[in-house]
Amino acid sequence: MRFLTILFAVLLNFSTVQSASADSCWWHNGSLMRLQAFGNQRNFYYENPREGLWNAGVRRGTLLFNGTKSGNWYSGLSRVFSSSCPGNPLEYFVEGPVAPNQTQVTMQGTRERSRNCASTGQVVVDTLVFTYARDC
What is the residue range of 51's domain? Predict the structure, then answer.
């Protein structure tokens, strides 16, 4: 009986930990991303960056998005990387919905376009689409 009580406590603790955090992989713009979720906090990191991002300073573990999930809505800061400014990403606000089947997140935001690490005065709209790939 004592064994069953201990087993139940361990399983209960394990299920609580699993619901408090999540770790999954998503495709974004040719790169494999890792989504880490803690409560309502959401972070997308590069897991396997696409070719060409290395010169912009992107490596495995580089943060692309950090923010929150409220219902089926993400909002927070995204980053854009440039080979002319490696290690100095431009941050901007993005937000958008999670698909009803929970396998796609689409966020949009406006940011200034830059050239050689300086603003050009132009504003562009960025759309970020993350599509579920698998558990990491």
Answer: 20-135
